[in-house]
């Protein structure tokens, strides 16, 4: 099973990326968690660069290819001015019509104090994109920078427990989605 972790932050010492690293560290051996840090390298979204039959810009193609390998996703994003960071929203705009997250389960974790506006915007955007946001498995209580040690690792046992519960729910949903897809494919063969 492969889970792609998307950080909405471009900062090198981001607590959101730290949360995703802790999520990955808690994954069992049979689950690969790949951290995608390419949102900042994507060009501004422009449908003229992605017309039907055209090849998208190389960074967009690489981003889509990575997302296409995922069975599920975990997203952690800060909130800027009551919304999603521009670079992260831009990344999502590049995959609205290409469908790499459609039908796949997603959990949201939030390392930022506040964050309710970004969370709501993210749920709305992902729902429009036909993703399956596991709201019950997405802790609404934001974490804070205080959960990270000096090396940027999550050390709070309560946070690690919540991340583990989110991971388990995501694994269960991803397994069900993969099984349903395999059954549907077998029925059309």
- Indicate the structural class: alpha/beta
H/E series: EHEHEHEHEH
Helical segment count? 5
Number of strands: 5
Write a concise keyword list for the protein shown above.
single chain, 5 strands, alpha/beta, 189 residues
Describe the structure.
With 189 residues, the protein is α/β, with parallel strands linked by helices. Helix content is 40%, strand content 12%. The protein contains 5 helices and 5 strands; from the N terminus they run βαβαβαβαβα. The chain starts with a strand and ends with a helix. The relative contact order is 0.18.
Per-chain topology:
Elements: E1 2-7, H1 15-25, E2 32-36, H2 58-68, E3 72-76, H3 86-94, E4 105-109, H4 116-128, E5 132-133, H5 157-188
Short description:
This protein is of the alpha/beta class and 189 residues long.
């Amino acid at each position: 099973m492969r889970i792609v972790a998307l950080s909405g932050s471009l900062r090198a010492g981001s607590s959101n990326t730290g949360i995703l690293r802790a999520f990955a560290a808690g994954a069992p051996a049979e689950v690969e968690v790949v951290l995608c840090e390419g949102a900042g390298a994507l060009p501004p979204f422009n449908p003229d660069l992605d017309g039907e039959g055209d090849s998208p810009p190389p960074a967009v193609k690489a981003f889509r290819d990575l997302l296409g390998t995922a069975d599920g996703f975990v997203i952690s994003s800060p909130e800027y001015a009551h919304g999603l960071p521009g670079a992260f929203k831009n990344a999502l705009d590049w995959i609205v019509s290409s469908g790499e997250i459609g039908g796949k389960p997603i959990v949201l974790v939030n390392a930022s104090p506040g964050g309710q506006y970004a969370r709501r915007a993210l749920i709305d955007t992902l729902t429009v994109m036909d993703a399956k946001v596991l709201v019950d498995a997405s802790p609404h209580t934001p974490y804070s920078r205080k959960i990270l040690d000096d090396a940027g690792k999550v050390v709070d046992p309560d946070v690690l427990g919540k991340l583990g519960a989110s991971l388990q729910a995501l694994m269960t949903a991803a397994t069900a989605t993969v099984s349903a897809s395999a059954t549907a494919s077998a029925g059309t063969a």
